[in-house]
Design a protein that fits this description.
Order of helices and strands: EEEHEHEHEHHHHHEHEHH
Protein name: Alpha/beta hydrolase
InterPro entries: AB_hydrolase_1, AB_hydrolase_fold, AB_hydrolase_sf
CATH topology: Rossmann fold
Number of domains: 1
CATH superfamily: Alpha/Beta hydrolase fold, catalytic domain
Strand order of the largest sheet: 1-2-4-3-5-6-7-8
CATH architecture: 3-Layer(aba) Sandwich
CATH class: Alpha Beta
Keywords: Hydrolase
Radius of gyration: 17 Å
Shape: globular
Structural class: alpha/beta
GO molecular function: hydrolase activity
Amino acid sequence: MFFQTHDGTRLAYEDHGQGEVVVLAASAMLSADMWEYQIPFLVRNGYRCVALDRRGHGRSDRPSGGYDLDTCADDLAALIEHLDLRDVTLAGHSMGGAETVRYLARHGADRVRRAALISATVPCLLRRDDNPQGLPPEAAEASLAALDDDRPGWLARQAQAFFATHLGNAVSPAMIEHTVRMCLATSPWAVRECQRSVLAADLRPDLATLALPLLVVHGAADMSAPVHLTGRRIAELVPHADYREYPTAGHGLYYSHRAELNAELLAFLKG
């Protein structure tokens, strides 16, 4: 299914099941297909799942602009308004988590009951004067340069760390290959622009506005969104958040720790 955003971009989404609505926002580079192991589980448990392909991703249009967090959050709002969804649970992985937080800051929580941030790139990744533990800007630029130089090679090098297979997580070579293929299917322009948007973001002021129930799930071995800059910081800045940290999980815990994550999501929805 498709709808048009305010700037005329045609975005794809999936809509499965009936009941209370969960809107799923995917990671940068990944499409709605990443939720393959969450959507059937939630539908079987009586929930309706709506999953968006971000612009430049999956089946959506691939425009040259609109990959900043404000526009991506507005795209999420446009989907929710298009379907006239109410009492929504927003669940975002990685950049999808950043979009979730920015959506709530820009559009409020009138249509949203609760939110879940999964391996989210929130609140602030880069080193700043008031964020001395952040990633050095030169290291971030080096990673972006490596991505620009050889995107398939960059993805291949990141794949094992993405799932933290070195810690014994059972992830097949086929699943790793499938994930890399999904990333390679994304617009190269969108990949680079999304990476830059995530690195430039400072969502600390946005987090300060959150008053709704919040679940935060993060892996201690996450190399893409280091936990001391993201999950643990969210828990500090939003004291009422329900924070869950998985000792052996990397960034791809939506698959490697799918049973635990699904149980956390279901308990959060029922709570």
